[in-house]
């Protein structure tokens, strides 16, 4: 059996794993990144269907915030392209841009100001009540309830009853506000390909179509992993592990006696997962003026939709327009009737895309259950990045910081995990140039 040695192993090349591997290699840790699929990106990736680039989950990537910080630290250009109107809210018959034009300017300033005042005065909603409780208390009209449902669907693959009001508030009013959303001409995989190329260029090792099958332990710490690579099994010796497989799946990779009593059992009932259903469709004729990412107020199910080729024509063969429409089913975090949900989603698409029935349906993507959920945890129920094992961390969805959402929440979890790792796992032979980077990325180094 082959045996190899690395400083750090990262399990999974989703947004969180890719960001963690890139940061570790940047700091000087000899890093192995193992990914089960034949591509990077996880639920922010892209596959080709008859010449159309169809995303496996995520569509848009926040350009600033934690994503922007990662791209800047690596010194890479993710190649993202900004839609003419990055986010538009369809309110009845009116389309209101939320991130561009005068309405976008006012909306952004308003949220920033409310957030700043709330942080200064310490006034924010009390923990506990959900967004649904708040809507009930105000006897909210159906249109407001539908808008709230569509926003929680799009942001959290959840419904208002699943989302604490204070978490929703903290997300909307976070410092720095919402940074514009952008699309990559290669699809959601685009930015992660850029980060993967940079990781490999810096000497990182990436094994695609490979599986981490188990972790080995010595003295209460992870000492290695068994990896299936092609038809071979490779034993890898490592000093630290960062996992993007999800907290439960990561614990299941450990020998049961290596974990504290009750840990695995707790994770097995830890949280419900969230679901999202996406219909990808294409037409030779343009179907309505939905150019950027549209959120909807009053629909049966449709939470958001986009004409992807409005910004990135490369995503479809010449002469075609590529669209998607998505919703969280009801219940979003439990068993649902897929046929009934699809009927409601298609009815909405017919209404908002005249000519939808003549369009070509390319795929229906259902992200649900424990293996490929839209969200591994109900918002606010994420596990910390650290685990009971001192040299094992979780990153990505399921280990995001409070109010973190989407890819940027996963990228943030990766930064926090790597900062923590750098505090407890010293570099083998720090080089002068790298010590400075450790200090910059990990202000707590040496604590
Ligand atoms: C339909 C949908 C639409 C979305 N839209 C957006 C959006 O527009 N913008 C946005 O920012 N976010 C969006 N999100 C959320 C975003 O896609 C996810 O939160 C994010 O991509 C999850 O990343 P992650 O770090 O958890 O990694 P994951 O995507 O979960 O990737 C984990 C990877 O680990 C691999 N893996 C697991 N176990 C092993 C193992 N044992 N060995 C090797 N490899 C393993 C898996 O194959 C996978 O590739 C959307 C999600 C969905 C489902």
TrEMBL record:
<dbReference type="InterPro" id="IPR036188">
    <property type="entry name" value="FAD/NAD-bd_sf"/>
</dbReference>
<dbReference type="InterPro" id="IPR002937">
    <property type="entry name" value="Amino_oxidase"/>
</dbReference>
<protein>
    <recommendedName>
        <fullName>Amine oxidase domain-containing protein</fullName>
    </recommendedName>
</protein>
<dbReference type="Pfam" id="PF01593">
    <property type="entry name" value="Amino_oxidase"/>
</dbReference>
<feature type="domain" description="Amine oxidase">
    <location>
        <begin position="16"/>
        <end position="419"/>
    </location>
</feature>
């Amino acid at each position: 059996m082959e045996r190899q040695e690395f400083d750090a192993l990262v399990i999974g090349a989703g947004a969180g794993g890719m960001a963690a591997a890139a940061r570790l290699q940047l700091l000087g840790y000899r890093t192995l990144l193992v990914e089960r699929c034949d591509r990077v990106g996880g639920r922010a990736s892209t596959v080709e269907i008859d010449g159309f680039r169809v995303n496996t989950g995520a569509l848009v990537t926040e350009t600033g915030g934690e994503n922007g910080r990662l791209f800047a630290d690596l010194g890479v250009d993710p190649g993202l392209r900004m839609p003419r109107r990055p986010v538009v809210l369809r309110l009845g018959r009116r389309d209101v841009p939320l991130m561009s034009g005068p309405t976008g300017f006012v909306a952004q300033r308003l949220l920033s100001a409310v957030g700043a005042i709330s942080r200064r005065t310490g006034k924010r909603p009390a923990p506990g009540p959900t967004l649904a409780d708040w809507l009930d208390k105000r006897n909210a009209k159906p249109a407001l309830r539908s808008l709230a449902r569509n926003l929680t669907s799009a942001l959290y693959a959840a419904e208002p009853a699943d989302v604490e009001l204070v978490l929703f508030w903290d997300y909307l009013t976070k410092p720095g506000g919402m940074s514009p959303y952008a699309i990559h001409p290669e699809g959601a995989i685009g930015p992660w390909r850029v980060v993967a190329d940079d990781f490999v260029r810096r000497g990182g090792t990436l094994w695609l179509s490979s599986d981490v099958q188990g972790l080995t332990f010595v003295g209460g710490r992870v000492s290695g992993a068994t990896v299936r690579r092609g038809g071979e099994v490779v034993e890898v010796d490592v000093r630290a592990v960062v996992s993007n497989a999800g907290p439960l799946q990561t614990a299941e990779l450990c020998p049961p006696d290596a974990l504290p009593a009750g840990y695995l059992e707790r994770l097995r009932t830890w949280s419900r997962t969230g679901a999202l259903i996406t219909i990808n469709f294409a037409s030779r004729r343009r179907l309505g003026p939905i150019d950027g990412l549209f959120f909807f107020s009053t629909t049966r199910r449709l939470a958001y939709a986009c004409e992807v080729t409005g910004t990135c024509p490369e995503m479809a063969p010449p002469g075609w327009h590529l669209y998607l429409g998505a919703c969280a089913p009801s219940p979003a975090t439990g068993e649902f009737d897929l046929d009934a949900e699809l009927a409601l989603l298609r009815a909405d698409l017919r209404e908002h895309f005249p000519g939808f029935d003549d369009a070509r349906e390319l795929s229906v993507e259902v992200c649900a259950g424990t293996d490929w959920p839209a969200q591994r945890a109900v918002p606010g129920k994420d596990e910390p990045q650290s685990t009971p094992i001192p040299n094992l961390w979780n990153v990505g969805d399921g280990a995001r910081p409070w109010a973190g959402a989407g890819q940027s929440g996963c990228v943030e979890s990766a930064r926090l995990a790597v900062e923590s790792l750098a505090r407890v796992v010293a570099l083998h032979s720090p080089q002068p140039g790298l010590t400075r980077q450790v200090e910059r990325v990990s202000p707590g180094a040496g604590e």
